[in-house]
Amino acid sequence: MASNAANLNAVRETMDVLFEISRILNTGLDMETLSICVRLCEQGINPEALSSVIKELRKATEALKLFRIQLWLRPLWA
Amino acid sequence: MFLELPFQNCLQFLTGSYSDGFNMKKGGLQERLAELFLSHFEETDAAQQFQYAVRVIGSNFAPTVERDEFLVAEKIKKELVRQRREADAALFSELYRKLSSQGVLKNKWSILYLLLSLSEDPRKQSNKVSSYAALFAQALPRDAHSTPYYYARPQTLPLNYQDRSTQSAQSSGSMGSSGISSISMYALNGPTPTPQSLLPGQSYQAPGVGDCLRQQLGSRLAWTLTASQPSLQNSTSKGLPNTVSRNVPRSRREGDTSGSVEITEANLVRDILYVFQGIDGKNIKMCNSENCYKVDGKVSLSKSLRDTTSRLAELGWLHNKIRKYTDQRSLDRAFGLVGQSFCAALHQELKEYYRLLSVLHSQLQLEDDQGVNLGLESSLTLRRLLVWTYDPKIRLKTLAALVDHCQGRKGGELASAVHAYTKTGDPYMRSLVQHILGLVSHPVLNFLYRWIYDGELEDTYHEFFVASDPTVKTDRLWHDKYTLRKSMIPSFITMEQSKKVLLIGKSINFLHQVCHDQTPSTKMIAVAKSAETPKDAADLFTDLENAFQEKIDAAYFETSKYLLDVLNKKYNLLEHMQAMRRYLLLGQGDFIRHLMDLLKPELARPATTLYQHNLTGILETAVRATNAQFDNPEILKRLDVRLLEVSPGDTGWDVFSLDYHVDGPIATVFTRECMSHYLRVFNFLWRAKRMEYILTDIWKGHMCNAKLLKSMPELSGVLHQCHVLASEMVHFIHQMQYYITFEILECSWDELWNKVQQAQDLDHIIAAHEVFLDTIITRCLLDSDSRVLLNQLRAVFDQIIELQNAQDTMYRAALEELQLRLQFEEKKKQRELEGEWGVTAVEEEEENKRIKEFQESIPKMCSQLRILTHFYQGIVQQFLVLLTTSSDESLRFLSFRLDFNEHYKAREPRLRISLGTRGRRSSHM
Hints:
Shape of chain B: rod-shaped
Protein name (chain A): Mitotic-spindle organizing protein 1 isoform X3
Distance between the termini of chain B: 133 Å
Mean pLDDT of chain A: 78
Number of helices of chain B: 34
Number of domains of chain A: 2
Pfam family, one (chain A): MOZART1
Oligomer: heterodimer
Shape of chain A: elongated
Helix content of chain A: over 70%
GO cellular component, one term (chain A): gamma-tubulin ring complex
Strand content of chain B: under 5%
InterPro entries (chain A): MZT1
Family (chain A): Belongs to the MOZART1 family.
């Protein structure tokens, strides 16, 4: 229906705006993650907590990625 | 409200159903969020992450900051302006306006705040580099090294840090602070486990990456690699001002690390990193007089720092030493393959060392770039370097010691020097040195295998222990061309092995060049050549005794056997040896006798009138007339006459000699010296034979003339004397001949033949042959020790000749007299027949006078003979005395035989001395 379509439009626009802002601010969030964050925030999560969680999760993935990489690196002498 | 949702429940909300209330929804979404990030994780990891996330969020339910949308927007703008992105700030304003105009979001503040806190300064360096650096730091202790040496580091430190870490975890409960996580606990499977007692009050790190991810979340909070510092055990201060966010209690080392020193530890670290490479730092310079690195005296440093610096600087010193050696050697063109491989091995080790240094450098670099802002745990401190470089130092020390030991050596010597260093109890050192030894000995073993399988020697730098003399021609190849260079024999190859190796290669070359036998070695040797890689060389050392020895033995056996086969079949070595015996050593009796018969009239002439071709003709006649004709024509071809140098007054007997030509491979065994020995022995034997011959003649004369001279009774005395003397001489010569033939020749020949039959290689044959000749020469009294004896013997021979002469004159005179008397009688008879007086008074008177003269000459003859006898006997006695005191047993036995009835003993007081217990008569009486 029209209201739904209008809603969807608005939502989409909002998301675009937010995505743009997120891009300007170099947060590194992709659309999907951003949408989840928005939903969480709408539901009243504490943004500080969420942000720290996201950071930690990122680091963990990085760590794991690097861990995987290091297995392929040539051994070093120490 | 703290929620602990079991993982399974969370899964139910994957689809995002919000039916179960507020918190559940959050849980579901959070799970999805976590899922997004943790796509790499296994389930258990994800579960842990999720639980963690939930816990965090649950525990920080209420925001600490005011919910002011406008404020946040302003903050964002300010941030953008601060980053000098005004355009972006304007853009943001626009976007914000748009956002506000749309009424979709209710909680704009929340999302904006979130975005702000997640934002990153694009100018700031990404964290990735640091994490890589940290990653390298992490990786160092764990992995195998490219050199075969594997240093087994302790893989896990004691992991009982949970209790300590939980403390800090609680202290870092506040997540509200901006910026990067401030609670960084460093984990490490450290390079070496520093005893915990050294660092009291430290906050220790949790273990390494993989481990940390597996740990229970409740026990710790830090992520190792995400901490942008290398994970080291110590988190000592470096003197840099520490930021607020550091919660870890700092350790104070020895008290005076900050503030008052002019040179900070950071500078020292920088300098040290340069010193590690042998480059002078700003403050730490090479002090040539003391040959060490020292910190500038002007700098005020605490003693501990100075000490630590010195200890670290040792590494640079060691590095310099090794580097100097390799650089010097690379310029040296004559260094040779072994030396080059040694340098290559050293170079390889240095490369590893440089890698370590580059990692350290990158660490330093990172800190520089990140600056002070991060307030991170600083990474490189002197103490850390100490710990880290402990093992490299040991390694470098070993290498430096090796370098010292190997100064000025090359080739096999160098290999020996390195091998000497493997004899250490320290397994670390031993494996390192063994690795180097494997590389270093590879060229030597290459040489060796080529030599024993192909006989080729390509050794431009004189490193191998077999030396080839290019000036030697093929005829002396076996004896002179190849020698052992003793200094180059590596200590893991014994002398016996190296001798065998020399022999094998020599045999192959001999076959190729002298025997013209180009059989490839593969035919000779069924053994496969070893693959020539350094690994094989290294393997060789694990089983040096057996495998190597086997190889050499196999090659030796096969090559020598083949060589002997060729020599015997193609070149008839043994047959030539027998021919020597038959002709030069008078083995072929009938031939020698006949030859002597034929030569007798020739050789009685003065030596200057002899012509070689005449004698050769006679020789051939002799050959054809005796059994010698059935010999191998090859051998007969080589038989020849040789005329020795003529001295004035020589008869033919003195210059005549037989000769045997040798060439080719045979000449290796019958060298020129050997042939000269043979000729000397021939000379001796020939003379003895001649004496025998003469005495036979004398005896013949006796027999013939005895009957004739029966009518002259006055001669009987003389004749009798003559006979007696002749018999004495015959006896003497008989015994001598017996001695020569049986004691000397036959025995030695037998020995030689046995040895030759059993010989395993050409060297054995040559040695046996030389022993044979030596024995013969000694026994034939031809060596320098027996000169006196020989002279005595010669004197005896001379006497015999004298006797012959005397006898000849006597017989001549006697026969002449007889003739005349017979003539007289004849005439008398004839006259009587004619009717005249048989004999006139004058004639009778003449006859009587003549007879009387003759009879008067008899005593002269008698006395002459007597003198001769006396002389002869004196000489023989002398000879006997010398014999009985000689050291050779067989000569002593000869004396017994010569004096079997003690005829001489009766006359010679010296001979009467009884034999002592040792069987020797002393000559000093």
